[in-house]
Amino acid sequence: MYSVDFSLYFANSGLKTHLNLLNTGQAWWTLLVLILLASVAKIFPVTMATKLCTRKSWYYCASMGVLMNTRGIIQLVVLNIGVQFNVISPVIFAMFVLMATIITFLTSPSLYFLYQRYSNPKVLQESKTAHELHLVLEGENNLERTKDDVIIISQQQMLNGSINHHVSCPHTISNGGRNRSTVHNNVHPKRHSRMTLF
Fold first, then answer.
1. CB atoms < 10 A from the CB of 57, how many?
2. Which residue, of 14, 100, 142, 162, has the greatest Cβ tally within 10 A?
3. Residues in the chain with pLDDT < 70?
4. Which residues, other chains included, contact 102 with Cβ-Cβ below 8 Å and sequence gap of 6+?
């Protein structure tokens, strides 16, 4: 719902923007100066504040400044209110809207340039190699755990089978037409003595 409202608001702002009013060289030079001043006023303070607070590399701090340099809904709201109350002219409104659009579209190429210019490919390659090595070691550890589990389960099954075979495996022996059960655990059946007591 909110995304639809924002889209309609942007569309309304676009309909109010008359770029055909920028038909002089002075208007385009003013637009260029606005872009430079707005970018410097946003990027430089944010970069310095990020450097003081985080102590990270300059390309990281400059990236924060470039990200903060984007323009959005707040600027359009202020510009539309200014046009409604005749505080700014339609020419200035068109300049500011075009400036916000250009700066926002320049954010992605600026970030790409910063990361390609100031990042260290060797460090990135080492971090990628370390990550791949970590994945390989983790896979080997999982494989070793699986092998150990299989060995333990096999030993338990063999032990249980041996116990069941030696302890509780009855055999039926025929003796004179009668069947009797003996336990096969190396214990011989008792024999009746033939001695006569006097």
1. 13
2. 100
3. 1-6, 117-134, 136, 140-141, 143, 147, 150, 161-198
4. 35
Query: What's the pTM?
Result: 0.55
The full set of domain ranges for the chain reads 2-123
DSSP string for the chain: -HHHHHHHHHHHHHHH--GGG--SHHHHHHHHHHHHHHHHHHHHHHHHHHHHHH---HHHHHHHHHHHT---HHHHHHHHHHHHTTSS-HHHHHHHHHHHHHHHHTHHHHHHHHHHHHS-HHHHHHHHHHHHHHHHHHHHHHHHHHHHHHHHHHHHHHHHHHHHHHHS-EEEEEETTEEEEEETTT-PPP----PPP-
- Among 55, 65, 180, 57, smallest CA distance to 118 is for 57
**Cβ-based neighbour number of residue 49 at 10 Å:** 14
